[in-house]
Amino acid sequence: MSELPLRVGLLGGGVIGGGWAARFLLNGVDVKLYDPDPEAPRHVDRLLDNARRAYAKLTVLPLPPEGSLTFVASPEEAAVDVGLVQESAPERLELKQRLLAAASAAAGPDVVFSSSTSGLRPSLLQAQMAHPERFTVGHPFNPVYLLPLVELCAGERTSPETVSRAAALYRAVGMHPLALRHEIDGFIADRLLEALWREALWLVHDDVATVAEVDDVVRYGAGLRWAIMGTFLTYRLAGGEAGMRAFMEHFGPALALPWTKLVDVPELTTEFLDKVARQSDAQAGGRTVAELERERDDSLVAILQALRTQGTGAGLTVAAWERGLLDLVPAPSAASLDGDGPLALYSREIPPDWIDYNGHVTESRYLDLLGEATDALLRYIGVDSAYVGSGGSYYTVETHISHLGQLYAGDRVQAATQLLGWDDKRLHLFHVITRVGEDTPVATGEHMLVHVDAAAGRASPVRDGVRWRVDALATAQAGLPRPKRAGRRITL
Question: Is domain 334-476 in CATH 2.30.110.10, yes or no?
Answer without folding.
Answer: no
